[in-house]
Design brief:
Length: 131
């Protein structure tokens, strides 16, 4: 499988369908009972591919008049890995379906939240592949 093919499979359009923008509101509604309590929007980005893994990132972008830095984003890997609204397991199943037998998702791992800026934090998602 080539990098070009992988980039076509995981286009921005496909990623938006896999992880729609309104999922952040649904996540915060489930977490706090009010979607406006959320300090950030969540977007899924594809980063890279090698024969053994796919690298994605959740981009946590500060919402207007909110403070991303004030919220505890370092605990998010544990929350995201278990929360049914984020549904990492379902997301990985969709990735596997999109690979259409060219590779098989074996397991996944969420990394440590990284602060890119005051307004943007990144949460890596690695999907390990079997050929």
């Amino acid at each position: 499988m080539t990098t070009h093919l992988i980039n076509e499979i995981f286009s921005q359009e496909t990623l938006k369908k896999m992880f729609p923008a309104d999922r952040a509101d649904r996540f915060f509604d489930a977490l706090f009972g009010d979607p406006t309590e959320g300090a950030f929007d969540i977007h899924l980005e594809f980063k890279s591919y090698n024969e053994n893994r796919l690298e994605f990132e959740f981009h946590l972008k500060q919402r207007p008049d909110k403070c991303l830095a004030c919220h505890l984003t370092h605990g998010l890997p544990q929350v995201f890995s278990r929360h049914p609204m984020i549904n990492i397991k379902g997301l990985v199943q969709e990735i596997d379906r999109l690979l259409d037998g060219k590779a098989k998702c074996r397991e996944w791992m969420l990394g440590v939240t990284r602060k890119r800026s005051r307004e943007l934090h990144l949460l890596p998602l690695t999907v390990f592949l079997d050929k």
